[in-house]
């Protein structure tokens, strides 16, 4: 979760990169991203990544995509799926305002904490989560729909390595879940591809979630390579259309999304876990994720 302090120092373990990439056709070898992530692994960063062709499902790029990683705010997508399913009936629930309360209060990511309005409709809260990963809106929605309902929905989707574990907390104690969310890049890539194809719960639910996520203003990781306006990219720009969700925490940088271009569409996920002890390490991780983005852009454009 962007800005959440877990109260625990990130652990990292150097290891050999285990992965595969597509063939050697121009625009399909992903050499830059593969090398950049491999260099991060050698530097002690835990890395997981996967990319698939949106039309064919062909795996284009993968590194340890089965490994469960902390994914911070990416788990909020599961909350949005449950909220969208609640609103599917088309009743008035989307317009009934939900008030914030003292137990919901949390800092860092989001703008609702800085607004005067003490209550907002459920659909507006979901838009705040999609656009700004709003922590306060997340907690109010979780109180409204229930974490158990989100977990049940996650199981119905067949996800076994991806979960939203807890509400957002400023500090995580020994009795709290150690992470806001976890996930494998294999499952996250499947989830975003399925949302893009309208296959999560129903086409209406999938499209509603995609609409909220299309507001996301965080293009600081993989998506930094796409040249899009962070505040306005809901429509194609030079033939590029992006829907993504990021996760940021101490030692965590993760992103999952769908990128469409004139040549192709692609679903992708990249997760990193590292000891965030100095700025150069963090910048190196972000630079490596951007290199993956450069390869993705070349494939679709």
TrEMBL record:
Compositional bias annotation for Basic residues: 8-21
Record-level Gene Ontology MF annotations: beta-lactamase activity
GO BP, sorted A to Z: beta-lactam antibiotic catabolic process; response to antibiotic
Keyword Transmembrane helix in annotation: no
Protein name: Serine hydrolase
Swiss-Prot/TrEMBL keywords: Hydrolase
Pfam family, one: Beta-lactamase2
PANTHER family from the UniProt entry: BETA-LACTAMASE, BETA-LACTAMASE-TYPE TRANSPEPTIDASE FOLD CONTAINING PROTEIN
Domain Beta-lactamase class A catalytic: 51-272
Presence of keyword Hydrolase: yes
Taxonomic lineage: Bacteria, Bacillati, Actinomycetota, Actinomycetes, Micrococcales
Transmembrane domains' residue ranges: none
Region annotation (Disordered) ranges: 1-28
């Amino acid at each position: 979760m962007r800005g959440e302090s877990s109260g625990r120092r990130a652990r990292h373990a150097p290891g050999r990169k285990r992965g595969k990439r597509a063939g050697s056709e121009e625009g399909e070898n992903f050499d830059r991203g593969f090398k950049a992530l491999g260099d991060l692994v050698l530097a002690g960063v835990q890395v997981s990544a996967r990319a698939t062709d949106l039309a064919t499902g062909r795996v284009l790029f993968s590194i340890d995509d089965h490994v469960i990683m902390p994914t911070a705010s990416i788990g909020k997508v599961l909350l949005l799926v449950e909220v969208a399913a609640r609103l599917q009936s088309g009743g008035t629930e989307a317009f009934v305002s939900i008030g914030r309360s003292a137990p919901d209060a949390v800092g860092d990511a989001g703008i609702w904490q800085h607004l005067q309005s003490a209550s907002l409709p459920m659909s507006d809260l979901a838009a705040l989560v999609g656009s700004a990963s709003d922590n306060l809106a997340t907690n109010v929605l979780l109180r409204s729909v229930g974490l158990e309902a989100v977990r049940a929905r996650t199981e119905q989707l067949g996800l076994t390595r991806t979960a939203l574990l807890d509400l957002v907390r400023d500090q995580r104690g020994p009795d709290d879940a150690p992470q806001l969310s976890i996930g494998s890049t294999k499952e996250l890539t499947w989830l975003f591809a399925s949302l893009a194809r309208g296959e999560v719960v129903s086409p209406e639910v999938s499209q509603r979630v995609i609409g909220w996520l299309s507001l996301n203003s965080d293009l600081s990781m993989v998506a930094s390579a796409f040249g899009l306006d962070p505040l306005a990219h809901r429509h194609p720009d030079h033939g590029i259309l992006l829907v993504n969700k990021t996760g940021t925490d101490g030692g965590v940088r993760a992103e999952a999304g769908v990128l469409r271009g004139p040549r192709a569409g692609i679903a992708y996920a990249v997760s990193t876990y590292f000891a965030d002890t100095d700025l150069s390490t963090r910048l190196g991780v972000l630079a490596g994720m951007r290199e993956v983005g450069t390869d993705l852009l070349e494939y679709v454009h």
